[in-house]
Design brief:
With 371 residues, the chain is mainly alpha-helical. The protein has helices at residues 2-10, 25-51, 55-67, 76-100, 108-125, 132-161, 165-187, 211-230, 232-242, 244-249, 254-281, 292-302, 307-330, 337-357; strands spanning 15-19, 358-362. The protein has 14 helices and 2 strands. A two-stranded antiparallel sheet has the order 1-2. It is globular, with a radius of gyration of 24 Å.
């Protein structure tokens, strides 16, 4: 008997993982805040080693590279930062309903690009044929419809034939890119550059070219929060995400919820594409979205599907990318430094989720000499 007890303890591992009870929300966010601070500390040290500049000098340069001389009344770079944050947030809002439903929509890049393409076609083909105010309405509606259709296609196949939504939406990105590439080629006479088009462009408010974009995304953020948290549709999305069998048992039509949610997801992506084309560049190319559709996936997860938290995460990522790009440009470093810097902080944020959900329990001594 004693021998069996000794063998049992001898084979007991030094430590094991155990699922942690739900933490109080403020403790969980303290862990996430600590992860951000540690990540930014590592980034500062890494930047200092690469550039030879001091830690605070590096972050001062990142701040100036992102916000410029905002304290001296020069706000152009601040508005550019808000614009970039708004676009990333808009894409994050778009994928959030689908992710909360556990429909892995990895096609935000293509859905936004096809929405921007629809806006560009309307601006180029319908400009001069109708009043500009009416044309803007047509541009907005065309972008929403195009993005919604691009989100609807994988939803229909997923609901009817149970296709793999991850692969399907990724392939739709490729199709959208090729459509835009072909359109740019034939519209530019082979030069691969479409000159900026002013007809159908979103109006400028108060000499601030990005203000309308920021306002639109702000309204979308509040609307998405209310939709997910307080509406019947938001409740159905949450139930389907928890268990499709449970959803069916209580009378929720899972296929309808899936299709409706992807229509909304694609439509919001279409709005993001419209803001990039009609509200920012007034042109389009295959790099208009610039990979932000994939970054939005991380923002949605890191923000715990909460639109307001996602806004903060979007601002943090844009600050790190823009600031690191300024540091790299100043000290003639590789342009990939911006991706490395944001990747380090995101890595710490993703890693901290492990410590929020799990705890490490070590083998400990007991009375009587047992180990």
């Amino acid at each position: 008997m004693a021998e069996n007890t000794v063998n049992k303890h001898r084979h007991e591992p030094l430590f094991h993982l155990a699922k942690r009870d739900d933490l109080v929300w403020w403790k969980a966010w303290l862990i996430r805040l600590a992860a951000i601070l540690i990540g930014m500390l590592i980034v500062g040290i890494l930047s200092s080693l690469l550039t030879g500049a001091g830690f605070f000098e590096t972050y001062g340069l990142m701040f100036r590279g992102t916000f410029g001389r905002v304290f001296q009344g020069r706000t152009s770079m601040l508005w550019r930062f808000l614009q970039q944050t708004a676009i990333l947030l808009c894409l994050s809002l778009a994928v959030t309903p689908a992710f909360k439903m556990k429909f892995w929509n990895c096609g935000a890049e293509g859905q936004a690009l096809i929405g921007g393409w629809a806006a560009m076609v309307c601006m180029m083909k319908l400009g001069g044929t109708m009043p500009n105010g009416l044309l803007i309405v047509v541009v907005v509606l065309a972008s929403i419809v195009a993005g919604a259709i691009w989100g609807l296609i994988p939803a229909l196949f997923g609901a009817q034939y149970r296709t793999n939504e991850t692969l399907f939406t990724l392939m739709m990105n490729y199709v959208a890119t090729q459509i835009v590439s072909y359109y740019v080629d034939i519209s530019s006479g082979g030069s691969q550059v479409i000159q900026p088009v002013s007809t159908g462009a979103l109006p400028i408010i108060g000499n601030l070219p990005y203000l309308l974009n920021v306002l639109i995304v702000t309204v979308l953020t509040v609307a998405m929060f209310i939709y997910l948290k307080y509406s019947k549709h938001g409740y159905e999305i949450a139930v389907v995400g928890e268990s499709r069998n449970t959803a069916k048992y209580i009378g929720i039509n899972v296929k309808t919820v899936m299709i409706r949610t992807m229509l909304i997801s694609g439509a919001v992506c279409g709005i993001a594409g419209m803001l990039l084309v009609a509200g920012t560049d007034h042109s389009i190319n295959t790099n208009t979205v610039g990979g932000q559709g994939f970054t939005a996936i991380m923002i949605s997860w890191l923000g715990q599907f909460n639109p307001f938290i996602m806004a903060g995460m979007s601002a943090l990522v844009i600050f790190l990318e823009t600031g690191a790009a300024k540091v790299a440009d100043t000290f003639f470093l590789n342009s990939s430094m911006a991706d490395i810097v944001s990747g380090v902080v995101i890595l710490f944020l993703v890693g901290c989720e492990f410590f929020i959900r799990y705890t490490v329990k070590f083998r400990h001594s007991k009375k009587g000499g047992e180990v």
